[in-house]
Automatic annotation (TrEMBL):
SMART domains given in the database record: ANK
Phylogenetic placement of the source organism: Eukaryota, Metazoa, Spiralia, Lophotrochozoa, Platyhelminthes
Domain Mab-21-like HhH/H2TH-like: from-to ranges: 478-550
Full protein name: ANK_REP_REGION domain-containing protein
SUPFAM superfamilies xrefs: Ankyrin repeat
Organism field: Macrostomum lignano
InterPro entries membership: Ankyrin_rpt, Ankyrin_rpt-contain_sf, Dendritic_Spine_Reg/Scaffold, Mab-21_HhH/H2TH-like
ANK repeat residue numbers: 181-213, 214-246
Length: 738
């Protein structure tokens, strides 16, 4: 049809235009015969060249390599043919038309000068279509092949690098040729972390001992960049981790200076198996048996405390639950950053919750139940958000928190409690706590149910909780400077794990060989909780009340605290990929037990309170309550006498011993050994001891002896200080007491 129509056009100008236009369309639509017919008919050579150049580019873009070759062959100037060849190669590379590129050929320099051509070659290597590359390699000098190999490695074109390494024209002389900085292909591979290329390069003859201009080997550079797998591959093939660069730094020191923790773990192995982790925690006392002992001690203290305080208090929290009150070992001690928690139910007051109160009691019928919103009961007047009154640690006495709570008439969210606890008999209670930016509400607390659940944990379940608590309370805030999670978050996370795998400790999931897997799963679960909420304050749902969120520590403050969520999430992700490093931190903290005994000092563990007066010595736990009262009275007496004007508490323990004897043996046989007291006094009498003798002895001679010795002490102090007036005042005070 074309051959018939073109001659029918009589106007020469129109005919020429028609030929050129039709040739362009033919280049865009593939019919080679039409192109071969039309192009020779174009009379003007400049028009013909312009037509061929334009049409060749169109054909190259569309992948018609035969048409491209024909148009280029029609050009009269060699310079034009070479120029359009390059432009067609560029067009074809941008569209990945390998046949066009292969038919035209690649000049080696084009690979280095134009990223489009280089990226095309890399893409073809992935497909295994390398005819264009083969043609270029046949024209290259050794240094060009090395340059291309290094470029493919640094640009992360692994398939192209593998193709070059596998080519028979690439040999040892290519792989170890350094660039201007002294870097070899193996070093660049280490920089980029291509562990899969390292063995291929070494098999080809690459040296692991070669150094760059700074004296660094491939292993040095891998450690600096933090590529663990690359470093491992190099070490497996003989790379020296003790090599020092020009600055005298070893591989470990380079990794340390760039905070490459995973590489440091590789260089200084600290891997620990599930069995070793389980044994590590067991040796430190984190076992079900030791937890039971701790729980029994807590129950004993609770009963004595109830006698002393005469209120409805329960010990709650980690000490009572038996797990991780100390993260060092389970020996009865309380960690410095932990405390003993007491919950005191306010007498004579009871609340009713909508959805919990079942109207079983007569009073329930007349009381209006409180609405519960996101775990908080709505009340008319708020009571603040300080659930506990803290007594700070002092000496060997641990810190103690006392939470005054209001009992409820029933349980709440019973279906959730039954997931972990059968036969729940405890009611929930309300504590003084609100959500961020909320008022007029009280938080629903399940601490009594939580205590029972925690007391049922097996050794592996308790160890998992201990490890999670270590991460949340110690590793994140102290090691990584990222506070935000608390013990309650760790406990809640454990509850969700118990729900997922069941509470039966005999199931496969709760066996010691799964301990690290359980930890990884827990961290993944925590990350999913954090990601599931868009609020910067919320971190996870409450276990018993899924519609109630738990908040990060210091939530609602704003400012930099709004970044807590992002920081915690990032740190947890880092830990998830470096569990071995976290285990190593735990290993440094825990200590194996030196003795099976527990530290148990009731006088330092019971709440500070004025005990009731002793009427008679009772049996059982009440008996100890009476002893506690006696010691309390004696301690205050001796301390008050010794330093009446001082704010410090000083106790003479010989005097305390005498006071206890006098209190416990009064009107009993054997009689108090006052003569023995006097023998000890004659050596170096102490004012407090003299006062104790005068206070308890009914013998006139003992009182006179005490007064004489007091006068001597007072005169000696007066001469020493030169302050007679002050001495007389003190003596008058002492005599008044005596």
């Amino acid at each position: 049809i074309v051959q018939f129509l073109v001659p029918q056009i009589f106007d020469k100008s129109n005919k020429e235009h028609c030929r050129i236009y039709t040739a362009d369309n033919a280049a865009d639509n593939r019919p080679l015969e039409i192109v071969q017919f039309l192009v020779p008919l174009v009379f003007d050579q400049s028009d013909k060249d312009a037509c061929c150049i334009k049409a060749a580019k169109i054909a190259a873009k569309n992948g018609y390599f035969l048409i491209v070759q024909f148009f280029i062959s029609c050009l009269t100037s060699p310079h034009q043919r070479e120029n359009i060849r390059f432009q067609c190669v560029l067009k074809a590379c941008s569209r990945h038309h390998e046949k066009v590129v292969a038919s035209l050929g690649l000049k080696p320099d084009w690979l280095f000068q134009f990223s489009t051509i280089f990226n095309f070659t890399a893409a073809m290597a992935i497909q295994g279509t390398n005819s264009a590359l083969d043609s270029a390699l046949s024209q290259m000098e050794p240094h060009q092949i090395t340059h291309l190999l290094c470029l493919s490695i640094s640009q992360r074109h692994v398939a192209l690098a593998v193709t070059l390494i596998s080519d028979e024209r690439v040999s040892t002389q290519h792989v170890d040729l350094p660039d201007s900085t002294g870097a070899t292909a193996l070093m660049l591979t280490a920089d980029a972390g291509h562990h899969e290329l390292i063995e291929k390069l070494i098999d080809l003859g690459a040296s692991v001992r070669a150094e760059d201009s700074q004296g660094r080997t491939a292993l040095s550079r891998a450690c600096e960049a933090g590529h663990v797998r690359a470093a491992k591959a190099l070490m497996d093939r003989g790379a020296d981790a003790n090599h020092r660069d020009n600055h005298g730094l070893t591989c470990a020191q380079l990794a340390q200076s760039f905070d490459q923790r995973q590489v440091l773990r590789l260089l200084n192995p600290t891997e620990i198996s599930d069995k070793e982790l389980h044994q590590l925690l067991s040796d430190a006392g984190f076992t079900q048996q030791r937890a039971k002992c701790q729980q029994n001690l807590a129950d004993w203290l609770q009963e004595v405390a109830r006698v002393l305080t005469q209120d409805r208090r329960q010990m709650t929290g980690s000490y009572a639950e038996g797990w991780a009150n100390s993260l060092v070992q389970v020996n009865g001690r309380t960690a410095a950053d932990s405390d003993i928690d007491w919950t005191v139910l306010v007498a004579g007051q009871k609340f009713h919750l909508e959805g919990g109160c079942d109207r079983r009691y007569r009073i329930c019928e007349v009381e209006t139940p409180l609405q519960v919103t996101e775990g908080h009961a709505q009340v008319t007047v708020g009571t603040g958000s300080q659930p506990a009154v803290a007594a700070t640690a002092c000496g060997v006495r641990p810190a103690q928190d006392t939470c005054h709570a209001i009992d409820c008439c029933s349980s709440f969210c019973e279906d959730r409690i039954e997931k972990l606890l059968r036969n729940n008999l405890d009611h929930v209670h309300l504590v003084r706590a609100t959500r961020p930016s909320s008022t007029n509400e009280l938080r629903v607390s399940f601490s009594f149910q939580e205590k029972r659940i925690m007391r049922q944990l097996s050794t592996v379940q308790g160890q998992l909780f201990t490890f999670i608590k270590f991460i949340f309370k110690r590793h994140l805030p102290l090691t990584l400077d990222t506070p935000g999670l608390k013990t309650y978050h760790a406990k809640t996370l454990l509850f969700f794990m118990l729900e997922r795998h069941g509470t039966d400790p005999e199931t496969e999931a709760w066996q010691p060989h799964n301990l690290i897997a359980l930890l990884n799963e827990s961290l993944d679960m925590m990350l999913s909780f954090i990601d599931s909420s868009s609020s910067p304050d919320e971190c996870m749902p409450h276990f018993f009340m899924p519609d109630a969120p738990l908040y990060f520590k210091n939530a609602g403050i704003g400012g930099d605290f709004d970044n807590t969520k992002a920081r915690v999430r990032d740190r947890l992700r880092e830990m998830r990929s470096d569990i071995g490093g976290v285990v190593e931190q735990l290993r440094r903290l825990v200590r194996p037990l030196q003795s099976e005994k527990f530290y148990f000092h009731p006088f330092t563990l019971l709440p500070l309170t004025a005990p009731p007066a002793v009427t008679k010595i009772m049996e059982g736990r009440d008996k100890f309550a009476d002893v506690y009262s006696v010691v309390h009275q004696c301690t205050l007496f001796t301390a008050r006498l010794s330093q009446p004007l001082s704010s410090h508490l000083y106790v003479n323990f010989r005097c305390l011993s005498w006071s206890l004897q006098a209190e416990l043996l009064r009107n009993r046989a054997p009689a108090i050994a006052f003569d023995h007291w006097i023998e000890q006094l004659l050596g170096d009498p102490d004012l407090e001891e003299l006062l104790t003798l005068a206070h308890y002895s009914d013998c006139r001679e003992h009182v006179e002896l005490s007064l004489q010795q007091m006068e001597m002490i007072e005169k000696r102090e007066t001469r020493r200080h030169g302050d007679a007036g002050r001495g007389e005042d003190r003596l008058d005070h002492v005599f008044a007491i005596a």
